[in-house]
Amino acid sequence: MEPLVVGSMASSSYQVVTSESGPQTRFIARRFRQALLRRNNLLRSPRQDTTCMLRFTSQNKFGGDCRKVQAAVDDFYLGRTLRVPVAAACLRNHDKDESRAKDRLPVPVEETRYFNFIVIGSGVAGLRYALEVAKVGSVAIVTKSEPHESNTNYAQGGVSAVLDPSDSVESHIRDTIVAGAFLCDEETVEVVCREGPERVKELMAMGASFDHSEDGQLHLTKEGGHSHHRIVHAADVTGREIERALLTAVQNNPNISFFEHHFAIDFLTKQEGSSVRCYGVDTLNIKSKEVLRFIGGVTMLAAGGAGHIYPNTTNPRVATGDGVAMAHRACAVISNMEFVQFHPTALADEGLPIRPKHRENVFLISEAVRGAGGILYNQSMERFMPQYDSRWELAPRDVVARSIEDQLKKRKEKYIYLDISHKPSKEILSHFPNIAAVCLQYGLDITKQPIPVVPAAHYMCGGIQTGLSGETSVWGLYAAGEVTCTGLHGANRLASNSLLEALVFSRRAVEPSIEYALGVGISHQDIDEAKEWPRVIEASAVLDKFQLQNISTFTACQREQLQQIMWDYVGIVRSTERLEIAQAQLKELESVWEDCLCKHGWNPLMVNTELCEMRNLISVANLVVSSALARQESRGLHYTTDFPDLVERQRFPTFIFPSFPISLKGNSQVIYKMPVEPARISEKRGDLS
Length: 689
Prior knowledge:
This protein is α/β, with parallel strands linked by helices and about 700 residues long.
């Protein structure tokens, strides 16, 4: 059967091959020719000598049914879809020299989805927010991996809240501020501690199942830095249980659409005078390699932390600082990035009877183990915490982590021991079933043997500065969870306050963001997407396998080098000299990496997951170093040998403000270099107006 030529543009022919003939076939051909004329930029061939074949055959998903093919083409012609339906059409490139056809970027496939609310991240903050705003509008949840893969899912300890009559909100406030080295925002602390109990009760009403004592009351534990038993938990898998309950509710909500395996590339922003407004986000479908654009009235950023700027972290693979880096490129105010929390007790693989194979994140040994009576020993089985703090093992995490670091350096050892074996076996297995099971996989019985542990990067206390309603300095962009800096944690997070913070601020952001979306929100019809935000394209559509392999291999190598720089020079104990070395090495690493990209044909409008992650890691690492250099004192998680004491006049947050003026006409800020402005200590919080 001879193909029917239905349209041409320049010297490129678009042909349709059908499995039928007759009037219906010719009608489809005419309609598709009209569609091409309306959307000529969409399917323009990479080179003028390239011929594209559009095949409607019995092999496609429509089974050769011309009525279905016609419906698909009609949808495209009438604008109900923003691309030729892939299920109905298969483009074939007949250029004899395929490599020459890729000399120019092909015009990317365009697809835009519109929602009232866009949520980036599927941890507790994102899910809790989505469930509330879904009561008034449509919601898209964009998540980088599977829905459950978030920092929330790995949280073991629990949620801190005043639920015991012998406890008080005032006591919780005091414990939080003391742990935060008096850098906490006191208004924020009071809001969180007072609203926390109600947020926990809401979780229980939604089906989250927490442990109860024999008397039927909630079983509350005590962790480091807390003066009372106030940790609500589900054995040692609290985060997993909360995630389960919230995901169940989300999946049963018809107003919420889930987009898993979608990597958030960058926000769609416009500069309006001295302000910046967010209209949505571009994402990359990791599996199909297509770029999907989301436009909405409000964007909620709940993308989690950045543990993978270090080689040893308790965070899952997805925690590459994407949220903070995106917000920084969008000109949001960033705060307190020098305060990286290293959890004192991550499982030390080197001390296990059976060494695990390579894994991308270390296994956390919960704070609750020390809260239940666990004791820290060096390898000579000498208890050492009494030498460092009067609270012994129940000192805040920054104190315990530095104490362990000191022991390891003095004794030239690679791990210490956390021992809970003196407690009854039944009690241990009841409270820590998951920890016991994981350790047993590697030949360690925690009811009889001490656990080898070592500090690991765990939590970012700094992030995007937000107000009491989750608002950022970018209009239309709200944020909640670890990606933010609300002022709650100050210079060091109190154990089990992270899930609490996420619950409180995701709920507090609901009413103001609804008001924004309904009031001064975005009219989709008023946005000229093509003019405002050029489309990006996935790299594999342009580069050959050899180019991609070279880039991927070199990027992986540079990523490991970045992590080692941060571990060696920006760890638990710092110095000005070491921070300056890190800053210089990061600059050199970025320059060498970008030179490699250019050498192998990289174009600024290309994206892929590995490279977007790498750029985000570089951005966040630079933010941490810049903030650390600005703080010339030791406070909380930031300890520097050059300034070992607290300095009262520096008891203010660190801010990194954007540079203005800057052109923001472009969505994928990965194509631009956003300079890291020198951080500065400021008495005033950043202006969010």
